[in-house]
Amino acid sequence: MSELDFDGRPDLPSEAGNLFSNKFNPDDTWLAKAPRELQIEAMRQWFYARYQDPANDTPYNGREGGYIFVNGGPHDPNDRIQERFDGLVEYDVMEELIDELHQEPGGDRWAPIDQEVDYEWEYENFYSTLPEHRTDPLIMLNERLKQIEETLTQQSQIQGFVIQLLHSSTITALEAYLWDTTAYWVTKNKDILRSFVNSNEDFSQEKLKLSDIFVAMDGLEKKVIEYLQKFIWHRLDKAKPLLEKTLKIKFPSIEKFMPEIIIRHDIVHRGGRDKDGYPVLVAIADVRRVSDMVSKFSRELEAELKKAFPITVDPSTPIAPAHPDMPEPF
Question: Does one domain contain both 216 and 243?
């Protein structure tokens, strides 16, 4: 039985294919013999790598009947899944995934993901926005939580759908904070970069010819950043050992986040309904409770970072403004 994440989805093994490719394509030989739950997950990741909810970037015109699929489509998961996996996977297995995809916002009308993106340019552009100071991740987290609170207080009649999105946004804020923090330390400290590579099986087990060592070293930091970009940060069970081994710190408790991450999954991937089809009920108080959890988590993590890497006072380094009711971190 494979390990399940907080969303109830299993991890794919390395033999399933290149899990960090922008266009994941499962190995057919492995797929044909894989357990049912792994077949479903592999097909799901293949589909997500190529198709998306049209709300993401498809032009919409209500007078013209809705979305205008300028890049092709719409695509029905029933057609695309069978077209790719017929003969490899039993129909009832494909049907289970197709039914789940039909329940997501894309329904039977998904838009293609533009695979012609210049990823090298995208990387360089993104790389320029990496945190410059150790306080930047906390500053950005507090700003996100403040924006969520302002949205809650500034709307007199806030709708349930908006409350759901704000709940999801608090988990997204936590994900961004973890990414920002990790990205900062691996790019600013060569010892931490080395620790990350040595403790991460995806890197430590990679074999190199002696003649390729210097080429690999030159591109190592970029490769690590690309890896972190693809890392699923709400997988706190995976983020915990990653940061503990890399930064030599104690990761704050994650147990209370587990049910909230499941709720986030239902909001984002099931259109605000749980796996049984019932609406996810989220109140304003729930959003504030989760926001407080995220804030407390960040304080505890910052305290661990402060112990592991004592702060050297630098007048040019900004100080993170506190989240409401949160004491200054330093």
Answer: yes
